Amino acid sequence: MKNIAVLMGGYSSEWQISLKSGEVIARNLDRSKYVVYPVHILKDGWYHVDSHNKRHPIDKNDFSITIDDSHITFDCIYNTVHGNPGEDGILQAYFELLHLPQTSCNSYVSAVTFNKRDCIAVLKPWGIHTGKHIYLNKGADYNINDIVKRMGLPFFVKANRSGSSFGVSKVYEASQLDQAIADAFAVDDEIIIESFLDGIEVSVGVYQIGDDVIALPPTEIVSENDFFDYEAKYLGKSQEITPARISDRLTLAVQEQSKRIYSILKCKGIARADFIFHEGTPHFIEINTTPGMSEESIIPQQITATNHKLTDVLTLIIEDTLKNHAS
Fold first, then answer.
1. In the chain, which segments carry CATH 3.30.1490.20?
2. 161: helix, coil or strand?
3. What are residue 230's phi and psi, to 5 degrees?
4. CATH number of 2-104
5. How far apart are CA 47 and CA 27, in angstroms?
6. What is the pLDDT of residues 163-201, one digit of tens each?
7. Half-sphere exposure of 278 (CA within 13 A, CB side)
8. Cα 210 from Cα 240, distance rounded (Å)
9. Which CATH number fits domain 112-129+198-326: 3.40.50.880, 3.30.450.40, 3.50.50.60, 3.30.470.20?
10. CA-CA distance, 160 to 167, in Å (whole number)?
11. Tens digit of each residue's pLDDT (9 = 90 or more) over 15-57
């Protein structure tokens, strides 16, 4: 039996969503193969929470715990921490220093993919279609009329390093831009202004086992709100239709594009790439390398649509992680 630490929480506004993701992962790991230890990574401390809701602090020297005088170390880390420090490379670098196998991307890839601006910059030379973008750092001057002229209305203003649609606004009029920028800067000190692409929005889960990169069935996202915001994602104000209502040709196109992006970026574990089909071509929006895995999340829906069990996919990912770490 291998000891698996399931990490959840984080320091960002997504920490509560991450707790839900971690609970789903912990509940679905194969108990005949693994001893599962839920671990909360929070600002008030790192600790394992046992079945009696008792906290056991993590020793950060070697990422271990002590329970009833028994020193417990971990064979593998399953990372479901959204945002900082679990999606931006910080925890990954820590585990690399400790030589502990973990299921998410390495520290460099995590840092690049978490930064929307840098990720787009890496992918563009590979011919990946995206929208138009303008970038701003906090404190920099900007000209509203110039931005409107370059982007056209409407457009999006986003926090550059965030998820779950925190710090995202859709701007319809020039008069809304100052407030949208202020809202984004409240989340991150870098923002990205992105052109609006009219078309079907889809999301594709991808993972790799051995040399095989596997794309899950695309999910079509139909939001009751202006866009796929927090309410649409987590409070039921959207339809998430799996498989997406698109042709076989478009399904294959977006799956192949997702696998290509996953491979170009050298991702690891489960990732989820988001696209807009604009004028018949999938345009890349962003990739999440520790995507939501809660009951409301897209990836579990997609795995169910393949007639596979989440438990079996998680086992494949953990065993592949252990194999690659040993080689």
1. 133-195
2. coil
3. -60, -45
4. 3.40.50.20
5. 18
6. 556 778 999 999 999 999 999 999 889 999 999 999 999
7. 14
8. 30
9. 3.30.470.20
10. 9
11. 999 999 999 999 999 999 999 999 999 999 999 999 899 999 9
